[in-house]
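S1.2 Input.
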Amino acid sequence: MIRRNRSPLVLAQRAVYGARRHDYGTPKANHTRTARLWSAYLGVPITARDVCMLNVLQKVSRDRHRAVADNLVDIAGYAENAHLVEL
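S1.3 Output.
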């Protein structure tokens, strides 16, 4: 269970605007790159926003198997990324 001082929203913001941005680039660049790869592999158009939403669904699936705090952090992070890729 998540402690009150470890809000998934706060932790997600730290990841999105901190280490993950440094490691992978901006959400728009990272998810656009992934979308191009998935589009080529699947043979259908995938957008950067689709990548974010599909990653959310993967985290929901993982959470259904076993609820861990990291799933909520990642869901919040992917939601923020979905917002950022459309700016």
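S1.4 Remarks. The chain has one domain: 7-85.
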